[in-house]
Automatic annotation (TrEMBL):
Protein name: Uncharacterized protein
Positions of region (Disordered): 1-24
GO biological process, alphabetically ordered: cell surface receptor signaling pathway
Superkingdom of the source species: Eukaryota
Length: 152
């Protein structure tokens, strides 16, 4: 927990040390990823799948905090990729939030929270894993793209 709090406090809007607006996109992604990790600590539904998703999200936060990643959101060639990553992180956030709602409202009828039949698409294991593996794709690709940019 201390690690997450320290990481979040070190990321400020406007970038790190003189980078200005260049890493704002990266900072947004890091803040979003760390908030997902923090919120997921209390999740009880689909625990294994959520933890896999959170593991990949934490790796994204770690990668995006690396100095080499500062160019990703600024470079026109990678800006779309960073935007797509952010969309997947937003989806991961919605999944975690939904599962957290279940924990907080366990006495409330499932049908009220999740529709008529009590089932909810975000709660389904296969959908959680689908989003997790999409995030994992970026865990694998970001270091390669960052290295390519360094040597270009």
């Amino acid at each position: 927990m201390l690690r997450d709090d320290a990481a979040m406090s070190s990321v400020r809007p406007g970038g790190r040390g003189g980078e200005g607006a260049s890493s704002t996109g990266n900072d947004e992604i890091v803040r979003l990823a760390l908030s997902i990790v923090q919120e997921a600590k209390a999740v009880r539904h689909n625990r294994a799948e959520i933890q896999l998703l959170v593991q990949f999200v934490q790796q994204i936060a770690d990668l995006m905090q690396q100095p080499q990643s500062s160019e990703l959101s600024r470079d026109p060639d990678t800006r779309a990729m960073v935007s797509s990553l952010k969309e997947y992180l937003l989806e991961a956030s919605r999944i975690v939030s939904h599962n957290e709602q279940h924990r907080k409202n366990k006495k409330m009828a499932q049908a009220f929270l999740c529709g008529v039949d009590g089932g909810y698409y975000w709660q389904q294991t296969d959908y959680i894993l689908k989003v997790a593996y999409r995030v994992e794709y970026y865990v694998q690709v970001l270091p390669v793209i960052t290295m390519r940019q360094m040597f270009a």
